[in-house]
Amino acid sequence: MKALLNLGLLLLFVTVQAKVYELCEFARIMNKNGMEGYRGFSLENWVCMAQFVSKFNSKYETHNYRKKLSSYGIFQISSKYWCDDGHTPGASNGCGIPCS
């Protein structure tokens, strides 16, 4: 549960602090916040995913106009399921947070 709370705070932090992180800097932040082994994934997996989907850019956005959804931030959080961007029809906003 603590790691989940840390992940939520980390996601909020990286969204508010518009920044492109360096690989080692991002890995240190993730490690400090208890992400090693979170949900069965190694720190290397989390870092690799962030590098692949956003290049560690906290303001990275992708838009799929055909599916009418967008993804936001380092982990490309979907507006369809996890956050509210005010533009995605039928969104569930599972985290109860804005995408911005």
TrEMBL record:
InterPro entries: Glyco_hydro_22 (IPR001916), Glyco_hydro_22_lys (IPR000974), Lysozyme-like_dom_sf (IPR023346). It holds the Pfam family Lys. Gene3D superfamilies: 1.10.530.10. Its EC number is 3.2.1.17. Keywords: Antimicrobial, Bacteriolytic enzyme, Disulfide bond, Glycosidase, Hydrolase, Signal. One of its GO terms (molecular function) is lysozyme activity. Residues 1-18 form the signal peptide. It catalyses: Hydrolysis of (1->4)-beta-linkages between N-acetylmuramic acid and N-acetyl-D-glucosamine residues in a peptidoglycan and between N-acetyl-D-glucosamine residues in chitodextrins. GO terms for biological process: defense response to Gram-negative bacterium; defense response to Gram-positive bacterium; killing of cells of another organism. Monomer. Belongs to the glycosyl hydrolase 22 family. This is lysozyme.
